[in-house]
Specification:
mainly beta, Immunoglobulin-like, six-stranded antiparallel sheet, five-stranded antiparallel sheet, 2 helices, elongated
Length: 156
């Protein structure tokens, strides 16, 4: 019984683990209400769904639905995320991604996206903003789409 009490006491004093949730800081955004759901922004050309997971999968899952009559291509050579300290991290897909045909939804897993999963460094990200920048070729023109993502940490 003494060993069990000591283990419970030590576990209570240990480093806390955290889960991250992100919301898109844009009035037009439809933000996820449950863990695992994707937040999204939509306009007349496309719908972009975003699900960052910096601890378990260490990636950002992005779904792009093409609502135009032509192809959309993601500019992977300029794809990046800017962290709260203004450090820029280049992201790339973990598999080859073709141009997105009209009416098609394409899923892209962007790596690397890693944040601490425990301790004070994880807790310090609460309320901070990351900016995901996705360049896209639409109708022969390159346009950068900016997605400000506010991090919320939840103690497990």
């Amino acid at each position: 019984m003494r060993k069990l009490s000591l283990l419970v006491l030590l576990a209570g004093c240990g480093v806390h683990n955290y889960r991250y949730d992100f919301v898109i800081n844009d009035l037009r955004a439809h933000n996820a209400r449950k863990p695992g759901e994707r937040s999204f922004l939509e306009d007349d050309m496309m719908k972009v769904e975003i699900l960052p997971d910096p601890t378990s999968f260490q990636a950002i899952l992005v779904d792009v639905t093409n609502k135009t009559t032509g192809q959309i291509a993601i500019g992977f050579d300029r794809l990046r995320i800017i962290d709260p300290e203004k450090n820029e991290v280049m992201l790339h897909p973990d598999a080859t991604v073709p141009a997105i045909d009209p009416g098609v939804r394409q899923t892209v897993r962007l790596i690397p996206f890693q944040l601490p999963g425990s301790g004070p460094r994880a807790a310090a990200y609460e309320g901070t903003t990351f900016e995901l920048i996705i360049p896209m070729w639409i109708g022969g023109a390159l346009k950068e789409y900016h997605y400000p993502l506010i991090a919320h940490t939840r103690r497990l």
